[in-house]
Design brief:
The protein is α+β, with helices and mostly antiparallel strands. Helices cover 41% and strands 18% of the residues.
């Protein structure tokens, strides 16, 4: 297991509790400081989890006859055992070369960067190097990639997918539906902890852009890269991080209210609402991200709150598209997606 932050700890917590404990044997757990060779010792894994939940680094771990080791030493010991093993990546780092170098028989990702920020060439290298699953990179525990995989296996290739892929931006759009100004909704979302400390990390649309690219590549558009997916931020460049700090951004949010209110009102006159969507047009070979108007009585139009939703069109699902809805964030939800992927490949 690479990464022992919120998602990584949730993976360990779920995997070492209940009747399914014996289904997963952890060879090692690593964070940015180092790692522990666990060799499938559930009691040791639980001790490592407790150590991390207390806020300590793995380099400082001692117990059960083990101590923290440098990362390279852990990797070398694993490789020396000549075992078949899977690598789970729950970090937020660009780990493409590292994942390939492990020589693992399977790779499971919650980390979006290896599959989104990687070039098309490196992406192809990664997915061809091992049995590969990355469900949690797009829908957390909502099985959008598994659904796409099954449709393609059944020769009913998706032709178009529209998705609300950000719980934060879903919350914002639901607030706009009620007539609230954009500035009020963003401040409310920040106060509730729904946004990153800098709300522009959400409002930029970059996270949705990554998810849309991953989804597009999973649909066979593996030539696309981040630069090929246009994205519409919900603030102008003049309010970007390079021009003002977070406090100044929050103070100037009101300047965006009039334009957004006009867009909301125009959509309402047409019987529509605004949703922040990633769209993969498989037939046209492209993807895009931004604020779109959808019919109020459509699946995306009826979506409220922080749930994710994916609307899949295909030959079979032409008149009535296939709709998936569920939680798209949260450590436990993401961890369940990781463990389901792991169960498939080990």
């Amino acid at each position: 297991l690479l990464g022992c932050g919120g998602v990584g700890r949730a993976v360990l917590r779920i995997a070492t509790s209940g009747a399914e404990t014996s289904a997963f044997s952890f060879l090692a757990v690593l964070d940015s400081s180092g790692g522990i060779i666990c060799d499938g010792d559930v009691a040791l894994v639980k001790a490592v989890l407790a150590h991390k939940e207390a806020g300590h680094s793995l380099a400082s771990f001692t117990g059960h006859g083990k101590q923290g080791l440098p990362k390279d030493d852990v990797v070398a010991q694993i490789k020396a055992q000549s075992l078949k093993f899977a690598v789970i990546d729950t970090t937020a780092a660009d780990t493409v070369e590292e994942l390939v170098s492990f020589g693992a028989s399977a790779v499971v990702l919650a980390n979006k960067k290896p599959v989104a920020d990687a070039s098309a060439e490196n992406y192809k290298k990664l997915v061809s190097a091992a049995t590969f699953r990355h469900e949690s990179t797009v829908g957390a525990g909502t099985p959008i990639l598994a659904t796409v995989r099954r449709l393609r296996a059944g020769l009913d290739n998706p032709t178009r997918i529209e998705g609300c892929m950000s719980g934060t931006l879903g919350f914002v759009c639901s607030g706009l539906d009620t007539g609230k100004p954009l500035s009020e909704v963003v401040r409310e979302a920040k106060a509730l902890g729904y946004t990153e400390p800098d709300p522009r990390d959400d409002l930029s649309g970059t996270d949705v852009q990554r998810k849309a690219l991953i989804l597009a590549r999973s649909c066979g558009l593996d030539h696309l890269e981040m630069k090929d997916v246009p994205v519409e931020p919900l603030y102008p460049p003049s309010m970007g991080p390079e021009n003002m700090d977070v406090d100044a951004f929050m103070a100037n949010l009101g300047s965006l209210d009039t334009d957004m209110a006009s867009r909301v009102a125009a959509a309402k006159e047409r019987g529509e609402v605004l949703r922040y969507c990633g769209t993969v047009d498989v037939a046209a070979g492209k993807a895009s991200v931004g604020l779109v108007a959808v019919k109020s009585d459509s699946p995306l139009g009826r979506l409220q709150g922080a749930d994710n939703m994916f609307v899949i069109h295909s030959s079979i699902y032409a008149e009535r598209p296939l709709v998936l809805q569920g939680a798209g964030a949260g450590n436990e939800c993401t961890a369940i997606g990781v463990l389901a992927d792991l169960k498939e490949v080990i």
